[in-house]
Automatic annotation (TrEMBL):
Gene3D superfamilies: Transcription Factor, Ets-1 (1.10.150.50). This is DDHD domain-containing protein. Residues 27-109 form the WWE domain. The gene is ddhd2. It holds the Pfam family WWE_3. The lineage of its organism: Eukaryota, Metazoa, Chordata, Craniata, Vertebrata. Belongs to the PA-PLA1 family. Residues 611-640 have a biased composition (Basic and acidic residues). InterPro entries: DDHD_dom (IPR004177), PA-PLA1 (IPR058055), SAM (IPR001660), SAM/pointed_sf (IPR013761), WWE_dom (IPR004170), WWE_SEC23-DDH2 (IPR057825). SMART domains: DDHD (SM01127), SAM (SM00454). One of its GO terms (cellular component) is cytoplasm.
Length: 709
């Protein structure tokens, strides 16, 4: 023992040195384990009165993070997100809609999340508290000391047990008789660090290149689908389906960078219409069955409003001015845009667009059309001050100067926008009356005086013919039975008009239009597609108005997966098989009866001459029967191919107009049960979206990878 005692003393210095270096190495290793958390940006929206935090796309989150790092000590920076439809104010942490009115949304730079027992998804902590959690986590990892407890300003307790187990205890307002602490009551929340550790779908983002712009106009009421969602939400679904269809059917064009995406923007006219009239309706609405009466006031009355001279003018003014305003704003935010514009309408919205398009002037194009619409007076020298002086409204010059409204911008103003500027009702009416009179005077220019006026009865009985209004321009007389309105002019020429679940055919018939001339075309729009679900109770066909003497089926839209739905194939197969069995059975009975009668006649008559004559007659009778057996197949083939060969006029450039969707298998069980769903199904219909993409990109000479049958 004595010999061994000095040994530790001899090695103690080196041992201490080794221990120090060991702990340094451990500390360095522990410090190396800590990695900065990757932030992701979220925004909050109210869904059913509950806050729902939704992640930005990976592309937008990266843009926001770069901007955040660059503007920490500078003024507020505005970052466009979601394809340019929303702007994010970084300093204010607010997300604002660009093209339509929408409540602002809170934005967060998120690193830490929690999820309670009743929560469907993880919720981000506030940014300041997330920084505290991150600092505590870094200390725990660096020192390898866990079970650290943090308390938030609201007395909520977070315990970091280890990197994989972190919990959040909520405070309880009351304590029981046993004196339980808040951390001992209730089931704790789960805490996660970093967006990669929570279950959330983060989209990659949208292509930057915009190939085409489509305006979408809603129908009656503020809700557009069976879930009572707004036009903005429904168009979002339509856009998302479009983005999913592009890589599935235009993969080759995407790989060659020939296409980017199609932008869909909603046009809302319902809120403007109901801003003032709802107060008047409330006074005359009965108190009984309150919910049903308010539902009727919000929805069905829109049809009657459109047939009213006063509100019809308000509706068409709102739709046209909104499409013009959004188009100019879109060009301002996308100066490199070189694509075309199309329009789509659902239900009553399609009728509004049809009436607008039939009343467009086709004598001007391009910048000439744009300049004419923007001009409010024929005198180019008239300024905004001159106009207000003429209307005896000089005291409002400062208001328009403050808002930077010149005479061109005044032509695009609606009643709601004038009201928002603080213009009282009387001056508002003067300005609107002035603008309408100017538009009316411009519409009268260049029109030839009528040589004779037909009687109203003769006009209703005779087939509607297009009339010439300019060089190469034909106008459809659809004003019979329609409320007169001064239809505004669009500052662009739409390439294609898509109508979903449209009552255009019914309204034209009720107005007395029983025939559309095959040579008629919309003045400024070359394409027209009438798309409908077979069980849609509001939809009507257009082609029978062009070709009233021929019965034929609408074009069946192919399934987006390249085949007919299985239940439709089975139904057609059973129908074809039953027809074949019926024809074969009838043919067999005829043959047997003829054989029986021929044998009886041969037994009575004698002689080879008579026998030869009867054989010749039997063969002559048998040959027509063989031809009749082949006729059903030939007839079915001809009926199947007939719609593609029929001439439906020039309303859609010589192509078919009516297109019917394939119903789903469950919808085939009861047509009446799914009638409402059939009218509201277009927003999430892949087949409808694919038709739009196919026709839009065909105008650019781009075809799908594999044409659908």
């Amino acid at each position: 023992m004595s010999a061994a005692e000095p040994q530790p003393a001899e090695i103690s210095p080196s041992s201490n040195s080794n221990s120090s270096s060991y702990y340094d190495a451990v500390e360095a290793e522990a410090a190396n384990k800590y990695e900065l958390v990757s932030p992701h940006w979220f925004y909050c929206k109210l869904v059913d009165s509950k806050e729902r935090w939704t992640p930005f796309s990976a592309q937008d989150s990266e843009k926001l993070e770069i901007a955040h790092q660059s503007c920490k000590h500078s003024q507020d920076l505005i970052v466009p997100t979601e394809g340019g439809r929303y702007d994010v104010h970084l300093t204010k942490r607010l997300r604002c809609a660009v093209y339509w009115e929408e409540a602002e949304s809170e934005v967060r730079r998120c690193t830490w999340f929690y999820k309670g027992e009743k929560d469907n998804r993880y919720i981000p902590y506030p940014e300041s508290f997330s920084e505290e959690l991150e600092d505590a986590y870094m200390i725990c990892v660096t020192l390898d000391e866990w079970k650290k407890k943090l308390e938030s300003p609201t007395r909520e307790v977070i315990i970091l047990h280890n990197p994989k187990l972190m919990v959040h205890y909520q405070p309880v307002a009351t304590t029981d008789d046993w004196g339980a602490t808040p951390t001992e009551q209730g089931r704790p929340r789960t805490v996660k660090r970093g967006v990669e550790n929570i279950s959330v779908d983060i989209p990659n983002g949208e292509p930057l290149q915009i190939d085409h712009l489509v305006f979408v106009v809603h129908g009656i009421g503020p809700a557009c689908d069976i879930r009572f969602r707004s036009i903005v939400q429904c168009v979002n679904d339509f856009r998302n389906v479009s983005l999913s269809m592009l890589p599935a059917h235009f993969k080759k064009a995407q790989e060659q960078q020939q296409i980017g995406r199609v932008e869909f923007l909603p046009v809302n006219w319902h809120s403007t219409l109901h801003t003032g009239v709802d107060v008047d309706l409330e006074r005359i609405t009965l108190p009984s069955i309150n919910r049903l009466r308010h539902f009727i006031n919000d929805t069905i009355l829109d049809v009657f409003f459109y047939n009213s001279a006063t509100y019809c003018q308000t509706i068409v003014d709102t739709v046209a001015s909104e499409m013009n305003r959004i188009y100019l704003l879109f060009l301002e935010r996308n100066p490199d845009f070189q694509g075309g514009v199309s329009i789509a309408g659902h239900s009553l919205g399609s009728l509004i667009l049809f009436d607008l398009l039939t009343n467009q002037k086709c004598t001007l194009d391009g910048e000439e059309r744009k300049n004419e619409i923007l001009a409010t007076t024929p005198e180019e020298s008239k300024s905004m001050k001159d106009i207000l002086t003429e209307l005896e409204l000089s005291e409002y010059c400062s208001v328009f100067e403050k808002e930077e409204v010149d005479r061109q911008a005044l032509a695009l103003c609606t009643e709601k926008e004038l009201k928002d500027m603080g213009i009282p009702l009387g001056p508002r009416m003067k300005i609107l009356h002035y603008l309408r009179n100017k538009n009316s005077n411009k519409n009268l220019k260049g029109q030839k005086p009528a040589a004779s006026v037909e009687s109203e009865d003769a006009k209703q009985e005779a087939p509607v013919k297009p009339t010439n209004t300019g060089t190469g321009c034909r106008r459809l007389d659809v004003m019979t039975g329609q409320v007169h309105a001064n239809y505004p002019q669009l500052i662009y020429e739409p390439q294609i008009f898509f109508a979903f679940g449209s009552p255009i055919g019914m309204f034209l018939t009720v107005r007395g239009v029983n025939r559309i001339d095959p040579d008629y075309r919309l003045p400024t729009c070359k394409g027209f597609f009438n798309v409908f679900h077979p069980f849609d109770p509001v939809a009507y066909r257009i082609e029978p108005l062009v070709v009233p003497d021929v019965e034929f089926e609408p074009m069946l839209l192919p399934h987006h997966k390249g085949r007919k739905r299985m239940h439709l194939e089975l139904k057609e197969g059973l129908t074809r098989m039953s027809m074949d069995l019926k024809n074969n059975l009838l043919g067999s009975l005829r043959t047997a009866w003829q054989s029986f009668t021929r044998t009886s006649m041969l037994a009575v008559e004698a002689g080879t001459t008579g026998e030869t004559e009867h054989e010749t007659e039997a063969e002559a009778e048998a040959s027509p029967e063989k031809q009749n057996e082949e006729k059903p197949e030939e007839a079915s083939t001809s009926v199947k191919e007939e719609p593609t060969l029929i001439n439906v006029g020039m309303l859609n450039g010589g192509h078919r107009i009516d297109y019917v969707l394939q119903e789903k298998p469950i919808e085939s069980f009861n047509e009446y049960l799914f009638a409402l769903q059939g009218h509201l199904c277009y927003w999430e219909s892949e087949d409808t979206v694919l038709l739009l993409l196919k026709e839009i990109y065909q105008t650019k000479g781009i075809s799908m990878d594999q044409p659908l049958p």
